[in-house]
Amino acid sequence: GVFVELEEGVDGLIHISDLSWTQRVKHPSEFTEVGKEIEVMVLEIDKENRRLSLGHKQTEENPWDEFEKLFTVGSIHEGTVTSTGENKKPATVLLPYGVTAYTTPRHLTKENGQRLVEDEKAPFVILEFNKDNQRIFVSHARTWEEEKRSEQEKEEAKQATEKREISEKVASQKVEKATLGDLDALAELAESLD
């Protein structure tokens, strides 16, 4: 966390997760530096231990309220791969507005069978949006898999229609033959009556 001196003798601590709404801060030095002033909000007062819990992100509006409307499940957004997920860690993707999303290496698979690499841009579909945990799960593979599936379904529907049309033609030809046969029988019957 980040230790903050509010005034002489009064210290507070900002937990890493309370530094930014969007940035995944691994170490405080990525976000701020010693001696720099930052705006904070008091989150908790621990009188016994004379400790204050502070937050920096709470001084700004929670953008996840807007992200919830923007990153709806099923919507597609361009993202940049920031990590391909080695050593059992999730792969990460940077979405618009600096939002980090998570995925698995399998979901980085391109249509040609290769995988997206770091810094590569591609479309990603939102699989899950969790506002409470500020987690978004995405997939690149699903963008083309769905397209392929819908093309396959269209092709199957087209083939089914063609089969039905052929069956109808065959059935109508049988009817025509039967009708002609009936006419011949009627002609013979008419002759025999004469």
Give a written overview of the molecule.
With about 190 residues, the chain is of the alpha+beta class. The chain contains two helices and nine strands; from the N terminus they run ββββαβββββα. It has helices at about 65-70, 140-194, and strands at about 1-5, 10-15, 40-45, 50-55, 75-85, 90-95, 100-105, 120-130, 135-140. The protein has a five-stranded antiparallel sheet with strand order 7-6-5-8-9. Strands 1-2-4-3 form a four-stranded mixed sheet, with no helix packed on it. The longest helix is centred in the C-terminal third of the chain and has 53 residues, at about 140-194. The N and C termini lie far apart (about 115 Å). The mean pLDDT is about 80.
Distance between the termini: 113 Å
Count of distinct strands? 9
Please tell me the overall pLDDT: 79
Low-confidence regions:
none
Quote the beta fraction. Answer: 25-35%
| Run of helices and strands | EEEEHEEEEEH
Q: Count the helices. How many?
A: 2
For the sheet with most strands, the description reads:
5 strands, antiparallel
Biggest sheet: strands side by side, in what order? 7-6-5-8-9
Structural class: alpha+beta
Alpha carbon gyration radius: 33 Å
Silhouette: elongated
Proportion in helices: 25-40%
Give a nutshell description of this structure:
The chain has 194 residues and is an alpha+beta fold. It has helices at 64-70, 141-193; strands at 2-7, 10-14, 41-46, 51-55, 76-83, 91-95, 99-103, 121-130, 135-139.
